[in-house]
Amino acid sequence: IAGELVVATNPDGSTFVQFTKTPLPFFTAQSTKNSWQVHAIPENKTFLGRGNPPARVPWLWIPRCLAGETPPAPLAWQTLPDGNWQLENRKSGESLEGYLSP
């Protein structure tokens, strides 16, 4: 699925991620240094927890990986030769790919 991913970070370590497939947002996700929350908009469900986000919520690892953190297994981060990035779940084979645009 192609769409627009908005990633925002704050110097205090908090992050915000939103995935939109025009015209509708699919989810928003937020994290702080010790908590995380994901809102699945089509299902109107919210999931939250304490500590680092789990690997099953790869969206919250994108800003952390862009900042140089290593994601937990089975997630793997790589910068591709064309400057794009990929976050892959090596167990399931699912992956997210993207690029930065100002």
Number of helices: 1
Strand order of the largest sheet: 1-2-3-4-5
Low-confidence residue ranges: none
**Distance, first to last CA:** 21 Å
Topology, number of strands? 8
SSE order, one letter for each helix or strand: EEEEEHEEE
Radius of gyration: 13 Å
Shape: globular
- What composes the largest sheet? 5 strands, antiparallel
In what range is the share of β-strand residues? Answer: over 45%
Overview of the molecule:
This protein is globular. The two termini are 21 Å apart. The chain has one helix at 61-66, and strands at residues 4-9, 15-21, 24-31, 35-40, 45-50, 75-79, 85-89, 95-98. With 102 residues, it is mainly beta.
Properties at a glance:
1 helix, 46% strand, five-stranded antiparallel sheet, single chain, 6% helix, three-stranded antiparallel sheet, mainly beta
Which helices and strands appear, and what pairs or packs with what?
Layout: E1 4-9, E2 15-21, E3 24-31, E4 35-40, E5 45-50, H1 61-66, E6 75-79, E7 85-89, E8 95-98
Antiparallel strand pairs: 1-2, 2-3, 3-4, 4-5, 6-7, 7-8
In short:
The protein has one helix at residues 61-66; strands spanning 4-9, 15-21, 24-31, 35-40, 45-50, 75-79, 85-89, 95-98.
